[in-house]
Amino acid sequence: MRILVADPSYSLDEVREIIGDHVNVEAASAPWQGDDVVGLLTGPDFPVGAEELEKLPALKVVATCSVGYDHVDLEAAAAHDVWVCNVPDYCIEEMADSSLALLLALLRGVVPLDRSVRAGGWDHSVSGPLHTFRGLQLAVIGFGRIGRALADRALALGFEVWAVDPHVPDEGIATTGVRPATLDDALANCRAFSLHSLLTDETRGLLGAAELARMPHGSYLVDTARAALVDFDAVLGALESGQLAGAAFDVLPVEPPSPDAPSPEHPNLIVNPHAAWYSPATEREAYRRPAVAVREALEGTRPADALAL
User: Fold this and answer.
1) Residues 116 and 106 in one domain
2) Of residues 255, 266, 283, 285, which has the active-site annotation?
3) In which domain, by residue range, is 61 found?
4) Is the pLDDT reported for residue 21 higher than 90?
5) What does the mean pLDDT of the chain come to?
6) Residues 16, 80, 274, 283: which is the catalytic one?
7) Beta strand extents in the chain (DSSP E only)
């Protein structure tokens, strides 16, 4: 039996220590294949679709070192009786902290002001109006673990927090001190937006040119979730027109940027290198728990982190 490790960030030695020496653990690049492959350790940059699953007839489990699992074909996995496991509850604090930090940096102009000083300027107005937080309407789009953690932080700072999530009952949102809202309501009334939705067919392109145009003029947008939730060209156009006063992204359509797909640029745009999830503790957890899930599957039990397919 073999375990294939697709993402080079895994430690093969740690995977072997967790799973045991009764299977062979090896690094492998796509396309994966083999009649004796029982487990696949992957990450968000390594898609697992129906074609890959067909070439791995003995596969029991696919485990990804991420919260998101849109890179795995869940229907195909269910058809092949393959467990799909993610790490659903790691990096919550880190993601919420980073989302809040990016939002506060936008509202107080931290990055444009720094760039201006380093370019020889000394002008407090170069980033446009600077906003206080108290009373400012913040729409948290996606009210899962990370969205709720961000809401807790924002409420403590005096934001008026709205939440958009059709999968969470309004009463479940309201009990947290947050105002439940539809996306239409949030677009019409909120000044700041932070994205925390899973990427699905329903949410892909959630914020395009039409949605950005319906926001109040001079709004702010933070995305630490998935790049495909927004239309990047539309965001750049909205920044250029002033419809967006600022935007911050920890995710890009192509990561890392390349000469063919360079990082977007604008004076009021902040781009981070997909770092919002990171701390030393969560880095270890992200790669340990998928290996544990594989071990559990090979032991014949439902992995604790298995998705309900």
Assistant:
1) yes
2) 255
3) 2-90+280-298
4) no
5) 96
6) 274
7) 2-5, 24-27, 37-42, 61-64, 83-85, 137-141, 160-164, 179-180, 192-195, 219-223, 244-249, 269-271
